[in-house]
Structure formats: structure tokens, C-alpha cells
Amino acid sequence: MEPTVAAQRIAEPEVASPERRLDVFTHARLWKNPCGFAARFNYLALRYNQPLYGWIEERYGLSRAEFVILYSLGIMDGVTASEIASSTAFPKNTLSRAVGLLGKRGLVGRGADATDRRAQPLHLTQAGRDLLAEAMPRFIALEEEMLEPLSLIEREQLSMLMAKVVLGMFHSGDTGE
User: Fold this and answer.
1) 128 with 107: CB under 8 angstroms?
2) What phi and psi, each to the nearest 5 degrees, are found at residue 126?
């Protein structure tokens, strides 16, 4: 399904300088793709995730799964590895190993659930909170850099539209699992 000429004119960027120019294939993949939203979304996600998680591994010796657990607990302390797996789409066994390694490094502690003995709420230790506090400015700065071309109103619109797409997946019954 080829986008209309009018849609291409609106969506396809005008490139001002050669150093900012995409190679021919990447340009086609992003702007002439029948799944353009997914292609651009994935392109941005890779440009965000690869440098940051590479830095996390180099700086702290943590895998992406390990840092995702810390990040998740920074958002909401006391969730279980199963809840993190459900939210992030990481396999449960990958997260289970990561929780064990984080526990050995003193970054995460396990609690006990009064109603379900199998559930083990996870908590950041002080060392885990300190590591997360040190790492987060880099994540925030890269997001800010990516959003720099947008005005405040455009950022709010983008956020609202992305939320609408995400919530629409739940209304359609597709939770991504």
C-alpha cells in the first residue's frame, strides 16, 4: 500500500544539510514504507536504546534486563518480576536471572507478599537508588535531545497521540502478548 503523493509530501522530510541526510535505504524504509509509523517508531527506539544500554553495560556492568528492573522499580517500587515481565515483554526467566544478579550486587532486595507466598515484591536498595539516580540524567537528556525539534505544544500533542495509540491496543484486546 503506497502512501498518497500528498501524504508523502507532508511526511517526508526535507533534508537541509548533507551530514544530516539518511542513506537511501533508510530514507526509503522510513518514508516510503507501508508501515511507516512502526518503522519510524522502531528507528527512534533503536537510536534511544542502543547508546543508552551500551553505556549502562560499559559503565555499570549491567545488562539491559538488569537495568530495566532497576528502572521499573524506580517508577514503582514493590512490583514483582512477573509484573515487570508483563509490562516490558522480557521473558520471565531472563528477568528472574537478572533479579538474582541484582540481588547479589546489593541493588535489589526481595520482600514477601502476605497473601501470595510465591510473589516476591522487589525493592531498590540504597545502592540501587543511587545507581539509578546517577544514570537517569543521561536517559532524560537523550529524550530531550530527540524532542528538541518540537515545540512544547507539539510535544504535548505527540504525548497525547502516543497515549491514544497505546490505550487503543488495550481497547482492541491486543495487549502485545
Assistant:
1) yes
2) -60, -40
Cβ-proximal residues to 92 (8 Å cutoff; 6+ apart), any chain:
81, 82, 85
Q: What is the pTM assigned to this prediction? A: 0.80
User: Residue 100 falls within a domain, yes or no?
Assistant: yes
CA distance 62 to 92: 17
DSSP collapsed to 3 states, 20-75: HCCCHHHHHHHHCCCCHHHHHHHHHHHHHHHHHHHHHHHHHCCCHHHHHHHHHHHH
Residues in Cβ contact with 51 at an 8 Å cutoff, skipping those fewer than 6 apart: 142
Instruction: Please state, in angstroms and as integers, the Cα–Cα distance from residue 11 to each residue in 134, 150, 159, following that order.
Output: 37, 15, 18
Cell of 74: 524506580
146 membership: H or E segment, kind and range = helix 126-147
CATH number of the domain bearing residue 80: 1.10.10.10
Q: State the total domains in the chain.
A: 1
Asked if 113 and 120 touch (Cβ cutoff 8 Å), the reply is yes
Q: Each residue of 109-142: pLDDT tens digit?
A: 988 765 655 678 999 999 999 999 999 999 999 9
